[in-house]
Amino acid sequence: MPTTPTPSANLLQLLPETVVQTDALWEITYLNSAWHKLTGHSVAAALGRSLLEFVHPDDIGTMRSGMPVFRLRFADANYRWVRLQFHPETDAAERVISRQGVLIEITEVTEQVLVEIRQRFLRLLETIDGVVWEAEIGVGNTFLSPQVERLFGYSVEEWRADPGFWRAHVHPDDLAQALVIDDAAYNATHSHAYEMSYRLIAKSGKVVWVRDLCRAVVEPGRPNRMIGLMIDVTQQKDTELELLRSENRYSLATRGSNDGIWYWDLRTDALHVSGRFLQIVGLGSRDHVYDGGWHFLEQLIDREDRARVQEAYRRHLSGNSANFSVDFRAFHGAGRLVWVNWRGLAEFEDGVPVRMAGSLSDLAERGSSYDALTNLPGRPLFRDRLAQLIALHQNEAVNGDGAPTRDGATMFAVLLLDLNGFKAVNDCYGHHVGDQLLQQVARRLESCVRAVDLVARMSGDEFNVLLESIDPAEASQRAEQIAAALAAPYVIGEHTVISGASIGLVSSASRLPTVDDYLRAADTAMYRAKSQSLGVCVAQ
């Protein structure tokens, strides 16, 4: 056991000031005779007792932390303000083994001001949920607030007794980076603020995440010192890590589905889109934030589809549709149009939509929604688009005669067509010629309709056409034009193929309630056209 050095008794007894020495745990090991003159307590009765027994209970914590001004109980049982600036002595391992200092009663006005400042400081410390500290190079912590015991479990004495205590308890994985920052502060040439985040091993063995707000203080003629505030941010870090894990899981899932992700703050109109979202529309692959959400989206949507997309979006935000899903043609960065599905869900607060999130899909990469052979939308996309038109038409206000008040703006027609003699083409020339015939039919259909209309391949040699904003008479004329265009010969390699089509048509004037009702009516009309060689048959 190391021995506690004792000052020269004869020399110290001659001093008029009170000399106090304690061990590392505050047990009094030496007092000169001035102790009795100042405090009224006998030296013999005080030796071997803890100095903390004489300190006002409210001041014990901050005195242990390194605050030199506190109240001391005198022999008359009254507490008086004193100053005792301790100077530690250390062993070979630089651990504190004793403390010595001169005890002075505060009587001057300037000292009273210091006391008031100290009291305000102590009250402030009590409101801070963190550890206030001061450290000096080669000395360690010269001040440490009592909260260190509650947050980390170590006593102030344990921590302050060892200059290397902090470094010894930083998590090994964070130590190297923390030391770089710490050493830079100790060797700084000018004062500056800095911040560290690291894990600290508590006395219980628990790992505590710490955010350390620090300042290096560089003053002429004295070693660098640091002051700071250590805050326990374990709960925040755990939340961030769980969020990151959740985001990583979600990111993996979305990459697996190959969809682009978006989040829209409707209050600020800030739209966050993922790298995959931008990749689908050919605008790069890095996540980005657009301050004008709708303006950004509007530029992506083909002009003929904008009103329809916006109407579907508004219906969802008004609460008229539980989910939001719409297909449209988007401008690609390469200068072409791509079919995409934009879907999502809004979140409401007090009935007001405040945020929205969802995904963007490239329909060309979703085999069930897009036909790879003809490069046309498939059955799911057609059904979704038809469902949107049915909802718009049903919600449109009508006048007394039952006619739409917007002059047919929401009227539409569904065409279902089947190629004549397609099986014979496959049997005679082979399936590769049949496939090329389907491709040429698709291109002719697209050339016969407007940009706002939709052509889809349903299965085999069956196609659907959705005509928007069109009355029954115009729809019938358009169907006849399509029939004439498809009846013209097809040149496929060295073969000339003749294959017309039978077309069934049903208009929204029939006011059928569901998608299946429209498709059944169109299918029935198409079979009547085929059986009676009518070319086009309009459902009754």
UniProtKB/TrEMBL annotation:
Name of a matching Pfam family: PAS_3
Annotated PAS domain residues: 11-65, 117-174, 246-320
Residue intervals of the PAC domain: 194-245
- Annotated signal sequence range: none
Instruction: Give every GGDEF domain span.
Output: 410-540
- Could you identify this protein by its name? PAS domain-containing protein
Which species?
Acidovorax benzenivorans
